[in-house]
Design goal:
By secondary structure, this protein is an all-alpha fold. It is 63% helix and 3% strand. The chain has helices at 15-36, 42-65, 73-94, 99-129; strands at 132-133, 138-139. Bound molecules: fe (ii) ion (2 copies). One fe (ii) ion binds at residues 59, 74, 78, 115, 119-120.
Amino acid sequence: MSTLAWTESLVLNQPKLDDTHQEFVELLNAFGAALDAGADALPAYHELLAHTEAHFAMEEDWMARCGFEPQNCHASQHAMVLRVMREALRYATELNDREPLSILRTELAQWFPQHAEMMDAALVFTMEQRGFDPVTGECREAAEAGSTSCGSSSCGH
Ligand SMILES: [Fe+2]
Ligand SMILES: [Fe+2]
């Protein structure tokens, strides 16, 4: 059984982001499959972590080009997830404790759909409103300077 199924609700109609998210789901499933097979899941986990670092960096680059401040709540959530992912890797490699890895597999599968449907969807909405094209990196309407909002209605900022 796969860890996380790709569903229509995950599609945000932003081709580059949708491709990246689909890759994330595939890598998470490959990591889960390695855990289930009792195989060494670390190579799959390294791949997932490297991909997630690039995935978040890409979104944060878009945020910066759209005028978000670096310390917005969407970027903070990325930072928190990466911190936990790196900590789980440290437990596995330095302490030979793989338990955090298998906990993370479940946590990431729960976290990702919420994050994509709220924060990433809000980012895509803001990008569209400001006429930002990820292909060229150009933004038609530079945002008000000092905007800290992540654009998500779930966020009070
Ligand atoms: Fe994302
Ligand atoms: Fe995100």
